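Weekly modeling sync, notes
Attendees: S.R. (lead), two postdocs, one rotation student

Agenda item 3: backlog of single-chain predictions. S.R. asked that every request posted to the team notebook include the full sequence so nobody has to chase files. The rotation student volunteered to paste the first one in as an example of the format we agreed on. Action items at the bottom.

Example entry:
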Amino acid sequence: MTRPTTLPHSRPQAWATIREAFGNRLGTSIRPRIAPVLRCLALVAFLWGLAACGSPALQASTDYQTVAPSPDGIGRVYLGREIAQTMGHQGAGWLDRPSRALQERPQAAIAALDLAPTDIVADIGAGTGYFARRIAPLVPQGKVLAVDIQPEMLAMLQQELEAKGIENVEPILGQIDNPNLPPSSIDLALMVDAYHEFAYPREIMQGVVAALKPGGRVVLAEYRAENPLVMIKRLHKMSVAQVRREMAAVGLEWIKTDDILPEQHLLFFQKQA
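Predicted structure, as returned to the notebook:
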């Protein structure tokens, strides 16, 4: 919902309502010199009442605004950024493309996470589990919670888990505004090229923060918006400044930005201990 640019009633309509409520007494039963003053005061009081009645909607609109959608956007703007369309399960093959290992160096990203064997890791926007399956052997006494909002993606993930005999990855069906994670249950939340597609980023991140243990970390991999040579559609890239702005909005503290990957920023944040 966008913030209204005009009041829901025009000035003549507002004055007509006031006159009706006061039985036209403002114009006929008061001395001419005083009547205009009272008219103004009454109009101010009426418009203030309209604003007060509409305050919840106005407050809610500070998080999201609606615009005409870009070709790859949903027409929903959060902190100055239009949210990108979600890649459907029909494009799942792109997630597991053989060239990904060379193009993006996912193993370097996983190594940078510095995981402990007992860590509980949430892979948010896990898709087919490309990262979840590779993280699982590194947390043998922990597990990976693979969260996605598309049942079809999770079905493909489950097939891969069964085929490879991986037992410490748990698929979780999330909602567009809720990752459905237990409170204070995870050590790390990882989002790889996914966060920019969340339709309700603030609500999802509030759920992630609630699920983090004290001192827990959030790591995002996002294609670099600052680099025009990264051949990814504009809305599917994010700048460091934008990511930091949005993580700060949910109370996460920036730790570092690691640019060891060829095309993506790797951004580290932490929940207060």
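Discussion: group reviewed the output briefly. The first strand starts at residue 64 and ends at 66.
Action items: rotation student to repeat for the remaining queue; S.R. to check formatting next week.
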